[in-house]
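Progress against Task 2.4 (sequence-to-structure conversion) is shown through the following example record, which the project officer requested during the mid-term review.
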Amino acid sequence: MELRQLQYLLAAVEEGSFTRAAARVHVAQPAISQQIAQLERELGERLFDRSERRVRLTPAGEAFLPHARAVLEAAAAGRDAVAALRGVLAGRLTVGTVPSPPPSLLDQLGELQRRHPEIRLTLRTGDPEHLTAQVVAGELDAAVIGALDHRLPAGPAGQRLPATLAGSEIAAEPLVIAVPSGHPLAQAAETTLADLRGEKIVTLTRGTGLRAVLEAACAEAGYTPEISVETDDLVVLAELVERGFGVALLPRSVADGPGSSLTTIPLRQPAPHRLMTLIWRRDRPSALTRAFLELT
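Structure tokens generated for the chain above:
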């Protein structure tokens, strides 16, 4: 069993085709077929069902695939460890973020890659609870979430971040009211959440920081917001407002984003803010994670 056979196997699975897999790894298509056939003979089982135009894994292939991935990841980690001995920081850094992350995050990741060009970056999006669980499990090296005073936004009062995690606030962005052009509030110089009583409101789904801020601010104003539509995507949320589904509480950068036709109205002080917190595991962060943290 050779590493290149496992690489060819993974390429074929992800591309769904031996031909596309061959183009991806820069070899001739017969070489892919021959090496996988040799691997199948060694294992004594067929790994692919070739009866259809798109190649599919057999039950044996499904059982073997996670082990092939683990071997390739271990081999990559070994190469990175040797490179580190030469003073070269290399490997994969996987960072999670809520949708529409603060621009500073992308700036920091860009600077990290300029300083250490051998680093491979993966950026994943999700809700704060899911991202937090992934950091705890070690599936993410770090994540940017909406959290206030080390509490997650889910639930009426939120829940504290796990003690195994460290956190640092990295951005605070003012929230504004976004309305479609022609809305009665569009001419207001400023407003309050109390002025949205009776308005149809579009917002993010429960468990997000923005939803928690909205519900808390409306409760303080003495009413429960009338949610007409909810989504898990900030960009879609802005588009819903543009199309007249309701008004929204949005980060200013999203409401005033490129191509936006929304009218934004500042909130009277003290206005709520979108607070972004970077979280990571306290115990033995990797060299890549430490290099990333140094830039925040």
